[in-house]
Amino acid sequence: MYGEWPSGCDVDAARQCEYDFLTCRLFSGPVDDPPTLCKCGEDFYGSCLRSAGCVIHQEVGALSLGELYLKKCVDHIIKYDCEDTMMCGINCATANNVDRAVSKIIPFNNYGKYYLRVRICKGIANEQRLQRYALMETGACKELVDFDVCARWIPPFSYVPVALPVDATYIEVDSCEINDEGEYMCHDEWEPQMIFGNSYMFPRTFDIPKTTESECLDNSNCLGSFCDDHFRPPMCSPKTMRHVLNSGKNYLSDPFG
């Protein structure tokens, strides 16, 4: 879960995940039963694929259509109206399924072309100010080794909730790339974007600014969301806490509706 770079997708483990998912769907309950299928989805998307490092990768099964697992997850929670929508999120708080009791959840709206790497600082720069005024200051973590670096990156043009450790004091977000050879690179020459708050208040969303490259043509351009043509030009609809706190059937609902 933590590391400077993603571990990569373990294809063999992903195939085993798909087999276990199929077995669960066929033999764990009535045919097409929503509670059964949601539980199977939690095990598959929320636990097994995360352990395999394959959440944002393409399907690997022999009979698959080659779609991204993250898109398949969104389709799954909507179809069966699953209560736990965080099985489709990015978990930087715990290894497998998101435990909301020990997590801060922030929807990330990545309107940019870079992968986002989340660095988590749990240090406190000024204990007295924090206790007296609930004032959080940055600077407790200075070098990369001071952070818990989430190895689960947020893809370009994706709109997903991200689970962070509940004791995170502030977050730094790097812009990164993966080249055609699968090599990783983060832009250390750019200042990271920062997210911080206190135990009483933390940002409700985090948005990468829109650019001319953020325009969408259809829903396929909006991983985890949909193309909203009410915007001029059309833009992907942002994720909000409304999508986190409601069940799966609302996951692609209009946050402004």
Q: Can you tell me about this structure?
A:
Helix 1 runs antiparallel to helix 2 (34-52) and helix 2 runs antiparallel to helix 3 (69-79). This protein is 23% helix and 19% strand. It has a domain at 11-91. It has 5 helices and 11 strands, in the order αααβββαββββββββα. Strands 3, 4, 6, 7 and 8 form a 5-stranded antiparallel beta sheet that branches. A 4-stranded mixed beta sheet has the order 1-5-2-9, with no helix packed on it. A two-stranded antiparallel ribbon has the order 10-11. It is of the alpha+beta class and 257 residues long. The protein is globular and about 55 Å long.
Strand content: 15-25%
Q: Major sheet, described briefly? A: 5 strands, antiparallel
Low-confidence stretches: none
The helical percent reads 10-25%
Radius of gyration: 18 Å
- How many helices? 5
Class inferred from helices and paired strands: alpha+beta
Mass-distribution shape: globular
Task: Give the integer mean of the pLDDT values.
Answer: 91
Would you list the SSEs in sequence order as H and E?
Answer: HHHEEEHEEEEEEEEH
Q: Compute the number of strand runs.
A: 11
